[in-house]
From TrEMBL:
The keyword Cytoplasm does not apply. The keyword Signal applies. This is DUF5010 C-terminal domain-containing protein. It comes from Pendulispora brunnea. Keywords: Signal. Residues 1-19 form the signal peptide. It holds the Pfam family Glyco_hydro_95_cat. SUPFAM superfamilies: Galactose-binding domain-like, Six-hairpin glycosidases. Residues 344-543 form the Glycosyl hydrolase family 95 catalytic domain. InterPro entries: 6-hairpin_glycosidase_sf, 6hp_glycosidase-like_sf, Galactose-bd-like_sf, GH95_cat, Glyco_hydro_b. It comes from the Bacteria. Coiled coil: none annotated.
C-alpha cells in the first residue's frame, strides 16, 4: 500500500474510505488507498475522539540514548504513578529512587539502587540502546542482542521492577546494592519535625530480601523502607555497612528484581518494614509477566484520555510536541500519591537529598505543574493537588482565625503538607499574599466544571470558595465614598505592602460572582450572597496608566522578584483574553511586562495563547526550552525549580489548541502562522465536552464534540461568518445552523456532535488513521543547545562549553539575555566549582565572564590537578556586560576542566569556555 508521508517525516496519516457510518469508517481503516492528507480527517464519530494508533504515534517521541550515559543528571526517567527512578550507567545500571509520599514535600528521596555483574553487563558489547518507551511506560537498556534490562513497575503502587534477560555464558556473579548517600550533612530543607530520624538508618537482610529504612520515628508518620527481593533466581542477602545492603543473585538467564519504596504513611500501623516485605512478596507472587501487562495497560489507558499533535515549523514544533509528551509522562509518573508531585522534587532527582525550596508547596510553582491536567482529561491528577488544600480545610480555617481574627480561610502561598504556614509567615516575600486561597478555590471549582460532579461542588468546592470569600470580605476596607479597597498586602512576591494589589482585586472579581452563582444554585447563604454582591458593586477598579494594567496602586513599589503580576488577569485568573472588552489593555500589559520569560516558572507563553498570539506562544515555548532545558532527558540545572517549565509547556500547548475558560469552546486560538503547521487534538473543555479538531494547510476541517454530561454548548465559529451547522452523529440530524460568530446548542449526555461548514462538511474528507514511526536517535531544537536523547556519535565538538551545562557545585545558572545561550553561572563562593568533562584538546582557553570584583580569581584545574590561578579583571557588573580572559594551558583530549573558587579566591560569573 502506498502511504503519504507528511511533515514531519515521522508522522503518517493513513486515509481510509469515508462513510457516514462510524462502523464503516473503522472497518475500512486498513484497506483503502490513501489520498492527500489535507483531504482527510481522523475523527472517529463512534468514540467521539481522534482515531490514533497511540503505540505507533507515541513511539516517535521515545527518548533514546544510543551510547551509555554516565552522568546522573542526564538519567532517564521511569515511574509508575507513585514511585520513580532516574537511571544512568555506572558500574552496571544505577538508579536513584524516590516515592512521592516518602517524606514531607518529598524532600528526601529513597536511595540508590545499583545492579552489577561480573563480567560487567556494560562491557564487551558493540551496540547499545536505552529507550524510554512512553506508550508502555518502561525503560529498556539493550547491549547487543544478548542482554536486555527492563525497568517497569506495578501500576500506581510503591513497587517497581528490574527484569533482566542475560543469555551470556560465563557470568560469575550478580549483585544488587541498595544504599544511601552521606547523611551527616543532611539539612532540614524538608521542614521535618525531627531531622535526626532522617539521619538514623536501620537495615535488614534475611531470606525474604534486604532493605534500608529511615524516618521511622517521624511524628507525622512519614518515613520509608527501600527494599528489594528477587523472582526467578536464588539469592542471598548481606549487610555491607550501616547504610548499604546487598542481594547476591545466583547467575540466571532471566530474573526480576522487585524494589519497593514502602512508606510509613501508607503502611498498616505505619510499619514500613513489614509493608516492604508484603509488597515484595505480593509482586513475586503475581509475577513479572502479569505485572508488566497491568503496568502497560495502565499507561495505555493514560494516553487514551487525550491527544495532541503540534508539528511543523521546520521540525522545531515537533520537538515541542516531543517535550509535551515527555512532560506528560514525567508528571503522571508521580501524580498519584496522597500528596502532590512537588515542583522541585517530584519522584525524580539525581541530586541525592541536596535540594532547596523543599519546605513547602509554593502555589505559584505548583499551579504551573498541575493546571494543564483538566484540559488533558485527567481530573484525577488535578484532584490530588486540590485535595491537599481541601483536606486541610479545618487547619486553614483555624489558623486564619488565629492569625487574622477572621472567620474564613486564608491559604499560605508556601503551604506545608498539613496546611502549615511556617514557610510563608517568616518571609517578607510571601507573608502578606492573600490571593492564594482564591487560586485554590478556583481550581476546585474548575474540577467541578470539567467533571460535573455535583457532590464535589456542594461538599468540597463551594465550602472552600465560601470561606475564602468571607476572608476577603473581612479583609477589605471601605472608604468614605463606599468603595471597597485593599489597604495593605503583597502583589504576589514582587511588590510588598502595597495598596490595591491587582491580585487581590482580581481575586474578588473572579471568585465572588462564581460564589454567588453557586450559592444560589445550591440554595445556600443568601446573606453572604448579598454581602458579596455589595462588595462587587463597589470595588475599586484595577490601577492602570491609561495603556497598561499596573500591579498595584501607584507609586510602584520596589521590585523584589521577577513576576509579571499584572498579567495574572490573563492567566490564571482568566478575566480577560480574546474577545474581552479590555483586550487591548491586556495585550499592552503583556507586551510591556517587565520580566519576559524571567524564570523557570515563567507562564508568559500561556498568557500569549490566551491573547491569541500564536507566533508568540510558539516562540515563547521554544525560548523556555532554550533557556531551561539543559539536559538530554528534559531536565534543567536551574535550582529555582525543576518541573514548573514542564507544566507550563503542557498548558501553553493545550491553550494554543483549545480554550474554554469563558464558557466558549474555541479551537486553534493561538497557532503559529505557518502553512506547514499541522495541529490535531482531542482535549476536554469546561462543561464536560471532549473536543477534537484538525488544522492543516491553514484550514480547520471540523469541530467534533462528545458531550459527556448533557450540558449546553457554545462554540466560537472557527470559520468566522461562514455558515456552519451542528450535526448529531447518531442520526445525522442537523440541530442548529448559523452564520454567526458563535453557535449555541443543547446536548444529550454521551452523544457526539460535529460542527461543520455547510459548504464543506466532514463527509467531504476521507477517514484516516493517525500513526507514526519510532524514533531511533537524539533530537535537537534548532538555534539552541537543547536536545532530547543521546546519539551514538555526538555532533562535532567545537570546543565551546556553556557554563550552565557544566557540573555545578555550590553555584547555579541564572538568566541573562546578554549571555551566550541566555544564561550565566552565578553565586560562586569558596568551594564552588564548574566542571567541564570530555573537552577537546587545545593549548588555549578563552573564558567569557563578568565580575564586580577587582579582580575575580578562580583556580583552573586539568584532570583534577591545579594548573594555574586565573585572574578576571573587573567588568563592573554581574550581568549584561562580559569580557573574555585568555590563558595558555595544555589541554589533553578528553580532559576535565574545572574552575574553582579556592581559599583566597574571588568570585566571577561564568558564561562559557572555549578551548582552542
Amino acid at each position: 500500500m502506498k502511504c503519504l508521508r507528511l511533515w514531519p517525516a515521522c508522522f503518517l496519516l493513513i486515509p481510509v474510505a469515508c462513510s457516514s457510518e462510524p462502523e464503516a469508517n473503522e472497518a475500512a481503516a486498513n484497506d483503502t488507498a490513501p489520498v492527500d492528507a489535507p483531504n482527510t480527517h481522523a475523527f472517529n464519530t463512534s468514540s467521539g475522539a481522534l482515531n490514533v494508533d497511540y503505540a505507533q504515534y507515541l513511539s516517535k517521541h521515545d527518548v533514546v540514548y544510543n551510547k551509555p550515559n554516565t552522568n546522573p543528571a542526564y538519567g532517564l526517567t521511569v515511574g509508575n504513578g507513585r514511585m520513580g527512578a532516574m537511571v544512568w550507567s555506572n558500574n552496571g545500571l544505577t538508579m536513584q529512587v524516590s516515592g512521592v509520599d516518602s517524606s514531607e514535600q518529598t524532600a528526601f528521596s529513597a536511595g540508590i539502587v545499583n545492579l552489577f555483574t561480573n563480567p560487567g553487563m556494560d562491557t564487551g558489547y558493540s551496540t547499545f540502546s536505552q529507550r524510554l518507551s512512553l506508550y508502555d511506560g518502561w525503560l529498556t537498556t539493550r547491549y547487543d542482542s544478548n542482554r536486555t534490562v527492563t525497568i517497569m513497575g506495578a501500576p500506581n503502587s510503591e513497587v517497581m521492577g528490574i527484569h533482566v534477560e542475560d543469555s551470556r555464558g560465563g557470568v560469575q556473579s550478580i549483585a544488587l546494592d541498595l544504599s544511601l548517600w552521606d547523611l551527616s550533612n543532611l539539612g532540614n530543607s524538608g521542614d521535618v519535625p525531627d531531622l535526626n530520624t532522617w539521619k538514623t538508618v536501620t537495615t535488614y537482610a534475611d531470606g525474604s530480601g534486604a532493605g534500608i529504612s529511615r524516618g521511622q520515628t517521624d511524628a507525622k508518620n512519614f518515613g520509608y523502607t527501600l527494599a528489594a527481593s528477587v523472582e526467578g533466581a536464588n539469592f542471598s542477602t548481606q549487610t555491607i555497612n550501616g547504610s548499604k545492603v546487598r542481594l547476591n543473585i545466583t547467575p540466571s538467564s532471566s530474573y526480576t528484581i522487585w524494589i519497593t519504596c514502602a512508606t510509613r504513611l501508607n503502611a498498616p500501623n505505619h510499619d514500613s518494614v513489614a509493608q516492604a516485605k508484603n509488597l515484595l512478596n505480593g509482586a513475586k507472587s503475581k509475577g513479572y509477566a502479569t505485572t508488566l501487562a497491568s503496568y502497560k495497560d495502565w499507561w495505555h489507558a493514560q494516553w487514551q484520555k487525550s491527544f495532541v499533535q503540534y508539528s511543523g515549523m521546520s521540525g522545531d514544533a515537533d520537538y515541542l510536541e516531543n517535550f509535551y509528551y515527555l512532560s506528560l509522562y514525567a508528571i503522571t509518573a508521580g501524580a498519584y500519591g496522597n500528596y502532590p508531585f512537588h515542583f522541585i522534587n517530584g519522584v525524580f532527582r539525581s541530586t541525592n537529598d541536596d535540594t532547596k525550596w523543599s519546605n513547602s508547596y509554593w502555589y505559584w510553582n505548583q499551579r504551573d505543574v498541575y493546571n494543564s491536567f483538566l484540559s488533558s482529561n485527567r481530573a484525577d491528577i488535578m484532584n490530588v493537588f486540590n485535595y491537599m488544600h481541601s483536606r486541610n480545610f479545618d487547619a486553614l480555617k483555624s489558623y486564619t482565625q488565629t492569625r487574622y481574627g477572621i472567620d474564613g480561610i486564608w491559604v499560605p502561598e508556601t503551604m506545608g503538607w498539613d496546611g502549615n504556614a511556617r514557610g510563608t509567615i517568616n518571609s517578607d516575600y510571601t507573608k502578606n499574599i492573600y490571593s492564594t486561597g482564591t487560586e485554590a478555590a478556583l481550581n476546585m471549582y474548575a474540577q467541578y466544571r470539567y467533571t460535573n460532579d455535583g457532590n464535589y461542588l456542594r461538599n468540597t468546592a463551594y465550602p472552600f470558595m465560601r470561606e475564602v470569600a468571607k476572608f476577603y470580605t473581612a479583609k477589605l476596607s471601605r472608604d468614605g465614598a463606599g468603595k471597597y479597597y485593599m489597604d495593605v498586602s503583597n502583589s504576589h512576591e514582587t511588590y510588598w505592602n502595597v495598596r490595591n494589589a491587582i491580585t487581590d482585586l482580581v481575586s474578588v472579581r473572579k471568585l465572588f460572582p462564581i460564589a454567588i452563582r453557586t450559592a444560589s444554585s445550591l440554595g445556600l447563604d443568601a446573606n453572604l450572597r448579598s454581602q458579596w454582591q455589595t462588595v462587587l458593586d463597589n470595588l475599586v477598579p484595577y490601577s492602570n496608566d491609561g495603556t497598561d494594567y499596573l500591579p498595584h496602586q501607584p507609586p510602584i513599589s520596589q521590585t523584589r522578584n521577577n513576576e509579571n503580576v499584572a498579567a495574572e488577569l490573563i492567566w490564571p485568573y482568566s478575566v480577560t483574553g480574546i474577545g474581552s472588552p479590555d483586550y487591548q489593555m491586556a495585550l499592552n500589559t503583556w507586551n510591556h511586562r517587565p520580566f519576559p520569560y524571567g524564570n523557570v516558572w515563567a507562564n508568559d507563553a500561556i498568557q500569549a495563547a490566551r491573547l491569541g498570539l500564536g507566533n508568540q506562544t510558539y516562540d515563547g515555548m521554544k525560548l523556555m526550552l532554550a533557556k531551561y532545558q539543559n539536559y538530554p532527558n528534559g531536565f534543567t540545572n536551574n535550582t529555582n525549580g525543576v518541573f514548573e517549565y514542564w507544566g507550563v509547556h503542557l498548558s501553553a500547548t493545550n491553550e494554543s489548541l483549545l480554550q474554554s475558560y469563558n464558557d466558549k469552546i474555541r479551537v486553534f486560538p493561538a497557532l503559529p502562522n505557518d502553512s506547514q503547521f499541522v495541529g490535531r487534538f482531542t482535549l476536554l473543555a469546561e462543561g464536560g465536552f471532549l473536543v477534537s479538531s484538525e488544522k492543516e494547510a491553514n484550514e480547520i476541517k471540523y469541530v467534533g464534540i462528545k458531550s459527556l454530561y448533557g450540558n449546553g454548548a457554545k462554540v466560537v465559529n472557527p470559520w468566522g461568518t461562514q455558515e456552519v451547522r451542528v450535526r448529531r452523529v447518531s442520526d445525522n440530524a442537523v440541530i442548529a445552523t448559523t452564520s454567526s460568530s458563535e453557535i449555541s446548542f443543547a446536548t444529550a449526555a454521551n452523544t457526539v456532535y460535529v460542527v461543520e461548514r455547510t459548504a464543506k462538511p466532514l463527509s467531504s474528507y476521507s477517514y484516516s488513521n493517525i500513526t507514526g514511526t519510532p524514533n531511533q536517535s537524539a533530537k535537537y531544537l534548532s538555534g539552541t543547545s537543547s536536545s532530547l536523547g543521546i546519539s551514538a556519535t555526538s555532533p562535532p565538538d567545537t570546543g565551546k562549553y556553556e557554563g550552565e551545562k557544566a557540573a555545578l557545585v555550590n553555584c547555579n545558572a541564572s538568566d541573562d539575555n546578554a549571555a551566550s545561550n541566555l544564561q550565566e553561572v552565578i553565586n560562586l563562593r569558596e568551594g564552588s566549582s564548574l566542571s567541564f568533562s570530555n573537552v577537546i584538546a587545545g593549548g588555549t582557553l578563552d573564558i567569557r565572564y563578568c565580575t564586580r570584583n577587582n579582580p575575580g580569581r578562580l583556580g583552573l584545574y586539568v584532570n583534577g590537578a591545579l594548573n594555574q590561578r586565573v585572574d578576571f579583571p573587573s567588568t563592573d557588573t554581574w550581568s549584561g556586560t562580559y569580557a573574555t580572559k585568555t590563558v595558555s594551558v595544555n589541554i589533553p583530549k578528553g580532559a576535565t576542566l574545572k574552575l574553582q573558587y579556592d581559599s583566597g579566591g574571588a568570585g566571577a560569573n561564568i558564561d562559557y569556555i572555549q578551548v582552542r
